[in-house]
Design goal:
The complex is a heterodimer of chains A (268) and B (280). Chain A is an all-alpha fold and 268 residues long. Chain A is built from ten helices and no strands. Chain A starts with 19 loop residues before the first helix and ends with a helix. Chain B is an alpha/beta fold. Chain B is globular. The chains are: A mainly alpha (268), B alpha/beta (280). The interface between A and B is medium-sized, with 25 and 38 residues.
Chain lengths: 268, 280
């Protein structure tokens, strides 16, 4: 029991920045910067008023979405995107699993680890659009380049996350399997796989999602799919068709999201 | 083989220095005859966990030799090491069951050293192995839990599965790492009694790391005290006088420490580091 009266003991959390000069100086500097920045803006209000009207025209051009006049192209583009998505995910996962195993420090000797981490780093360095431009130049326009781009990106994404998940597995469970005299493959099958499988399935479904969305983007640089269709629609100023394509993309993404949510809950 | 005279397990000058610089073992010599149940006691960080992990080379020793049945375990290549590990059943503090596998899969994983990759992948173990697994599960009192997932069991039940997994290996010796540190006092006694009984039934030797000196005294024939990686006591459980306990653990009032000592804490600190170092 303390004998000091309660009022005598006050407490406040320590400030984030200890030095009071620095603390208050930063606050003043932030305020001055804000005032100067706002002062440097030159807003031409008459142009803003004009532009509002034109902006509204632009938005109105999207409504209502026109699914019918370019129906065949939309269906074909969507089908192509879906094929690209599924094939690239399957190929990407098949390549990413060995890379992920190799990039897990607790399973692999150092040289293999470094090589696999290198593969992961290279495939993650470049954004999909850049890779797509490269593959379009190498393999020509069309979905093959798109499929290869997405598979390539999947390796880095899944390889890295799988490796990290493997490194987070309970080391005692792995020790126990090794202590029985199990081989390395048996260790994977009995010690690692049960621990990482739910998350691996979740990641694959998530990547399927991403690959579909990315397929729309890389289509714009010539890698086929719904992105190419969307690009054409904009080039022709057919905003109502473009709106229809956007709605279709949203519908597919939401359906995939919903389905993967159900599956992920099941595999826990 | 000269094994029977020299002891089933023979350890000579075993030393381990971790890359961090910690000298976990500093030259340990130990002979364990067939069928002997031995308790390894000592303060946290004394090297108990490292010792049993060096015996089956989950942790590579930096110096010294380990012989099992006359075979030098420390000289074996990968295939030979796997064969030697089959003869050493290991039981863990936190049970180390693969949580998402069923009880039966966990027990059968004790046969992995005997079964090829594809049969184990398809869970097609030889009928004799499956029969053994059923019999062992019955023996440890888990006959009805065959298809339960390991994470559905209580602590005591999980440790029984861990024991069953070690037994189906058909081992000559059990390496037991703090089997009761995650269990309540009553379950601890039941588990220790079960291990002692099984060793008796099957003429198994055992090296049991344990913090609870009183519990150790109840169930073992021999106690080895480890301090800072060296053996400082080797004798019968009755010989653990307050002076001896002071040598092992350091100054403390030991007069009350005979049977009902509930020292449940400790044993975790240095272990995670040791485990990490052991996984490669």
């Amino acid at each position: 029991m303390s004998t000091v009266p309660a009022a005598a003991r006050r407490w406040a959390p320590p400030p984030l920045i200890q030095n009071p000069w620095l603390r208050h100086g930063l606050q003043v500097a932030a305020a001055v910067y804000l005032v100067l920045a706002l002062g440097s803006l030159e807003v031409n209000w008459t142009r803003v008023v004009d532009g509002l009207g034109r902006g509204w025209q632009f938005v109105k051009a999207f409504a209502p979405p026109d699914f019918l006049s370019r129906r065949a192209e939309i269906v074909e583009g969507l089908a192509e995107s879906l094929v690209m998505t599924v094939t690239s995910t399957v190929v990407g996962v098949a390549l990413a699993v060995p890379v992920g195993l190799g990039a897990a420090r607790n399973l692999t000797p150092l040289p293999v680890y470094l090589v696999c981490r290198g593969i992961v780093a290279v495939t993650r360095t470049f954004q999909e659009v850049i890779v797509a431009i490269l593959f379009v130049a190498m393999f020509g326009f069309g979905p093959l380049a798109g499929m290869l781009t997405l598979a390539f990106a999947t390796i880095g994404f899944l390889g890295k996350l799988l490796a990290e998940d493997i490194e987070d597995t309970d080391p005692e469970q792995l020790e126990a399997i090794r202590a029985t005299g199990a081989s390395w493959l048996q260790l994977l099958n009995y010690g690692v796989q049960p621990q990482v499988m739910p998350r691996l399935i979740g990641l694959c479904l998530y990547r399927l999602d991403i690959n579909f969305r990315e397929s729309a983007v890389i289509g714009i640089v010539g890698a086929g799919g719904i992105g190419a269709t969307l690009n054409t629609a904009f080039d022709r100023y057919e905003y109502d068709t473009a709106a229809a394509i956007l709605v279709a993309i949203i519908a597919v993404v939401m359906a995939a999201e919903y389905a993967s949510g159900i599956i992920r809950r099941r595999v826990q | 083989m000269p094994a029977s005279r020299d002891g089933l397990l023979r350890v000579e000058g075993l030393a381990k220095r971790y890359p961090t610089g910690d000298q976990a073992l500093a030259g340990v010599d130990l002979h364990v005859p067939a069928g002997q149940v031995l308790a390894l006691i000592g303060p946290s960080g004394a090297g108990k966990s490292t010792f049993i992990r060096c015996v089956n080379r989950l942790v590579e020793p930096t110096a010294g030799r380990v012989y099992l049945d006359g075979v030098e375990v420390t000289a074996l290549g990968p295939a030979g090491l796997r064969r030697a590990r089959r003869r050493m059943g290991m039981i863990f503090q936190e049970f180390a069951l693969v949580e998402r596998l069923t009880v039966m899969e966990n027990v059968l994983s004790g046969r992995l050293g005997y079964v090829g990759f594809w049969p184990s992948w398809f869970r097609r173990f030889p009928p004799a192995d499956v029969a053994t697994a059923f019999a062992v599960l019955e023996r440890v009192g888990l006959g009805e839990y065959v298809d339960k997932r390991a994470d559905e069991l209580s602590g005591g039940q999980r440790q029984r599965v861990g024991i069953a997994r070690a037994l189906v290996q058909d081992p000559a010796i059990l390496l037991v790492d703090e089997p009761t540190a995650s269990l309540d006092p009553k379950t601890s006694r039941q588990i220790m009694r079960l291990i002692a009984e099984l060793c008796e039934e099957r003429a198994l030797a055992a090296v049991i790391n344990i913090h609870d000196v009183g519990l150790a005294q109840l169930f073992v024939q021999r106690v080895v005290g480890l301090r800072q990686g060296r053996i400082v006591y080797d004798g019968p459980p009755a010989g653990l006088t307050p002076e001896v306990l002071t040598t092992i653990y350091g100054e403390e009032d030991w007069s009350q420490t005979s049977r009902a000592d509930d020292d449940e804490d400790g044993g975790r600190g240095g272990l995670d580091e040791e485990r990490l170092a052991g996984l490669r």
